[in-house]
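S1.2 Input.
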Amino acid sequence: MTEIRPLAPADRDAWLPLWRGYIEFYESEVSDEQTALTWSRLLDPQFPIHGAVATDDGRAVGFVHWLTHAATWSAAPYVYLEDLFVAPDTRGSGAGRALIAHVTEWAREHDAAKVYWLTQETNITARALYDRVATHTGFVHYEIGLGR
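S1.3 Output.
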């Protein structure tokens, strides 16, 4: 059975290969320095990024990271689900749905107006889940990299 709980310092060795798998899935690169910074931010109660881990029989099988920000269209804050990853061998087990539900419940408890996230159009497996638990808004994502 999948259990979801906040990340703890002892989770680093289990989180790290999942994080690397996530970065690889998106065919990207993140330096070791940034990975270390991300981990420290996830554990810092003063930093506005949060994380949780999904475990199945004690084994870490996925994670979720999210942050809260003010909004111009709402008095209540929004929750941005920035990273979500489930190990390939446990996809379809309900871990992804449980991680999203964890963030959604956290957002309710913190009086947020909504939870939202992005994914690639080609991420068909994840989008099948997302289409069941959320509303596809039809927005298209653009960005300008600033070389940092």
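S1.4 Remarks. The two ends are 40 Å apart (CA to CA).
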